[in-house]
Amino acid sequence: MAEDDGFEQRLRQARTRQGMDPPPTSSGGLPSGSTWGVGFRAGVEVVSALIVGVAAGWFLDRWLGTWPWLFLLCFVFGSVAGVLNVYRLFTPRNVARK
Amino acid sequence: MAAEDKTIDALSQFELGTVLGPIGASVGFSQSNAHMLLAAGLITALIMFGMSARAVVPGRLQSLAESSYEFVHDLVVGQVGEEGKRFFPFVFTLFMFVLFGNMLGLLPYAFTYTSHIAVTFGLAAIVFVLITVVALMLHGRKFFGYFFPEGAPLWLAPIIIPVEIVSYLSRPVSLSIRLFANMVAGHVMLKVFATFVVLLGGLGAVGPLVAVLPLSVNIALVGFEVLVAFLQAYVFAILTSIYLHDAVHLH
Fold first, then answer.
1. Cβ–Cβ gap B231/A41 under 8 Å
2. Which InterPro entries match (chain A) (predicted)?
């Protein structure tokens, strides 16, 4: 396969010389669709965090018999986690990593 | 069926029924399962027959198989890095299964198995278990440091840790809801506008003229749904890769 690799490399060099290849963009994130798509994604993040929070609180309460205190607490945690998810959605991942 | 009693019945398309007569009924083999098997068969056939020629200059089927392989391969390596190659079979299977489910559902008389949250949550749960197990195996106890970022003040721990745990647990939920909601919304819209065509078409002399409007909307929607079907499979695969990146590198 050395032959093929050499061909690929020369082709790439030739293409770069002619300016046919666009400079590699950061393929970091999700496809940024329409405004509706962005809104929908943010909504899903909030709703799913709330579902997890509420479900965790409800089951913990039923298990420990402390209704409604853990439910209320986990609801708040779920809301904060939802906001955090949306914040992470709009923070460029590569910047946030380093 | 919806137009006969002049109502819009957009949700009956998601109802499960058994196929294959009494045998299917006795084991609960639904049309959803049948379409899953069909999708698995089609994917296997695409790869096996596509690659059976092994030509240097690929034919149509081979280039389809190769481009789908390379698409997912680039996605996984681009997101997870070189060490992500071992997860390639998993992500490829997941991507093709979701893609074929979405695409098959657009054919007439077909059933969209990705429009059931039980299916999408099942897939998302597999991803969730995998990323957790991978992170635990690679990092051991350090995995739990994920829930408390270094450098944060210690007195914030009672707030940060539950929030991070909820955020981590919400991953499979958001992954499954996104796919499920997109597929359901698309199919409901198609059904609603298709019912409009039938209802308006039966409205006397002007009916067929007016019915052209929802028909044209439906034609545009079908094209849009093909895009959504591909995009949602892509989003599912890329989010899986992002989560795998987090599990492998544990930033």
1. no
2. ATPase_put (IPR032820)
